[in-house]
Amino acid sequence: MFEQTFKNIDDVLWKEAGCATELDYTEQTSWILFLRYLDDLERANAQKAELHGKAYDYIIDKRYRWSSWAAPKKKDGTFDHDKAMVGDDLIKFVNTKLFPYLKGFRRRAEGANTIEYKIGEIFSEIENKFRSGYSLRDALELVDGLSFKTQREKHELSELYEGKLRNMGNAGRNGGEYYTPRPLIRAMIQVVKPQIGERIYDGACGSAGFLCEAYDHLRGKPDLSSKDLKTLQDKTFFGKEKKSLAYVIGIMNMILHGIDAPNIVHANTLAENIDDIQDKDRYDIVLANPPFGGKERPEVQQNFPIRTGETAFLFLQHFIKSLKAGGRAAIVIKNTFLSNTDNASVALRKELLENCNLHTVLDMPGGTFQGAGVKTVVLFFEKGAPTRKIWFYKCDPGRNLGKTNPLNDDDLKEFVSLQAKFRDSAKSWSVEVKSIDKATHDLSVKNPNKAEETALRDPKDIIAEMMALDAESAEILEGIGRML
Where is the N6 adenine-specific DNA methyltransferase N-terminal domain (predicted)? Predict the structure, then answer.
């Protein structure tokens, strides 16, 4: 129903001089969609209040409501082109009046968990990149044709938005940071088995894929009560995100999935000293794919007992500390974490094995993440008891993964099935912790059921890995240069 509208919006953005990348397309679509959603939400709330004989106190002042500036209508419901701003007038209104007004909500809101505060945060972090008021007018009229009134409409819109996020990830570079393949997320959730009433956390939430998929999983359970639905809305999903664009996209993604006021905080998770995390701050479940390869500054490293510049290793410490006793986690990390010999890697593996039950390691094939030359594993663990035995599974889809041949749910069906009982197979095996080297705690993935063979790698994979290594080398040299 809405697919053609999304294609038409992309066509408008493609011609717009201020929008050059898939990231720009998604950002600009997001803020317009958000305001359209907000208009539907306010109208629905006003109708509910009217049914109960009450007056509704609008969040947005009349002048700044969608129906006033974006899509003015005549009494018969048709578009009023005489009242609709266009060209330079429209751009001037959006940049000098609308955005400053919306930014002001952050200052005026009663608290950070209110929709008012989210409005202020979103419009403090992004800018209107439209340069042509005619292009913006076209985009507004297209988005006005969408509707958020029913669950079916929201579901369809969320599917289309997910498609935009997937394209953004496929575009590589920064886009790949925000997109984890949904089949992998769904498999992780099936293993962790979240329940209604448990608090679920992602401290590096990006486009909020983990939280959205966990919501869909729990929302699909039969016979949910109104209390259960309220619990899912308000008390279940929590996230933090450092980057402005990802924060905005994450909020929009959760709203489209059905969560009206997402509990996502715009903050650098790693700036918090993990010794300050108290019981009340802890969660039942952590689901995450923290950024790796980043280099954190010394003052950030001071917040962690195991100091390292590797962002992912700091996040792993944060996640362990953020879990309740008995809490469960599934975390994506670079596969070199399992065997690196540097002090931080060894200390972190020791911490994980001694204070958590690392029961499962899922080894993912190259190409799982578009545009990334690194291979990854997923660590599944429970906090509070030491590891006795680790079950490994090597995912091998039998084909080279890539942009036109991505990971799918069937590729992980066997993993989920075998993991339920930790069954051994040609692709899975168990390792007793007592057999692991006590000095290095090396957890390398070595399938004992398969003779080591030299695989002929896809040239594209080799080039992608070379590019990733070149980028990492350049970053290290730049850091050395700054110190000289």
Answer: 4-95
